[in-house]
Amino acid sequence: MNIRVKDSQTQLSEDAPSNSVTPWQLQHREFLAAATSDNTRRAYRSAIKHFLAWGGILPADEATVLRYLLNFAHLLNPRTLALRLTALSQWHIQQGFSDPAASPTVRKTLLGIQRKNGVPAQKAKALPVADMGLIATALQQQGSLKALRDNALLQITYFGAYRRSEVVRLQFEHILWEPEGVLITLPRSKTDQKGEGIIKAIPYGENACCPPTALRVWCKAAAITTGPIFRGINKWGQIGVDAMHEASLNGILTNAATLAELPYVPQLSSHSLRRGLATSAYRAGARFQDIKRQGGWRHDGTVQGYIEEAERFDENAAGHLLRRTK
């Protein structure tokens, strides 16, 4: 049976003539697609393409899925294999076929691969607030239009604890200036898929870090009064009209950290900003619920993990003993 690969969240046939699809079916298709985030949908599509490129056929059977797992057991991270298995499972479920990835044999095989080949997840280093200050100072000394944008982008991302996919979607219309700082509305996020909106307050700072000031300076210099706040800048210094791509944030952070001469640049990624806000805020005495609200974290366990990271040397059993020997 030749099955065309379709969006994993729709069961409606895309092969049907357009005049045979009723308005309610089109609306139903839109709602089904909206039920899954764009990032998840992209990841699932990539997984399905990988399976087909390997030689798999959809719908698949248990034997084929097992061969696929065994073929990549030593080539891919077990977490990547688990994601691809989930994508295959979702495709079969949404298309109305029996799910071969759900069989006990397949699941036990994946568990064995995870136990034998699993490696610790590499986590981005949390950027301390003091080093965020060094980055801000280095960029302010540059004075270029790009440096103004990068300074505002990194400070807003850090102190707003934004995900990179969120900060690049911010619009000028989302900003509300207040005497204490700036209020920024995020219409939708990873933890707000229903679009209820998240408002984050970012106060003025007293030292090198002052996100509202950096944001105001950038918007004024770039003459941004509507649309995307953070936009691409070409090599001639011309500002684009579209929002910059979220993947650009990693390179911007790397270049800025290098400019500030931080010694751990290879350990940084865009997630270092969110992680850094959480750990630095806790060390500064911020309450658990305040950290959770600023980052828009859904689960307490995520925030607790950042707090434990911040406490590694402060609340340390060995440290209590070593301090007594001084």
What would the average pLDDT be, to the nearest integer?
Answer: 86
Provide the gyration radius in Å: 24 Å
CATH class of the largest domain: Mainly Alpha
Number of domains: 2
- Would you identify the CATH H-level superfamily of the largest domain? Intergrase catalytic core
Q: What is the strand content? A: 5-15%
With strands numbered from the N-terminus, the spatial order across the biggest sheet is: 1-2-3
Percent of residues in helices: 40-55%
Topology-level CATH name of the largest domain: hpI Integrase, Chain A
Pfam families: Phage_integrase
Keywords: DNA integration, DNA recombination, DNA-binding
Domain Core-binding (CB): 19-96
GO molecular function, one term: DNA binding
Give an account of the 3D structure.
This protein is mainly alpha-helical and 326 residues long. It has two domains: 18-117, Tyrosine recombinase, N-terminal domain (DNA polymerase, domain 1, Orthogonal Bundle), CATH 1.10.150.130; 129-310, Intergrase catalytic core (hpI Integrase, Chain A, Orthogonal Bundle), CATH 1.10.443.10. Helices cover 52% and strands 7% of the residues. It has 14 helices and five strands. A three-stranded antiparallel β-sheet has the order 1-2-3, with no helix packed on it. The radius of gyration is 24 Å and the shape is globular. The relative contact order is 0.10. Residues 1-18 have low confidence and may be disordered.
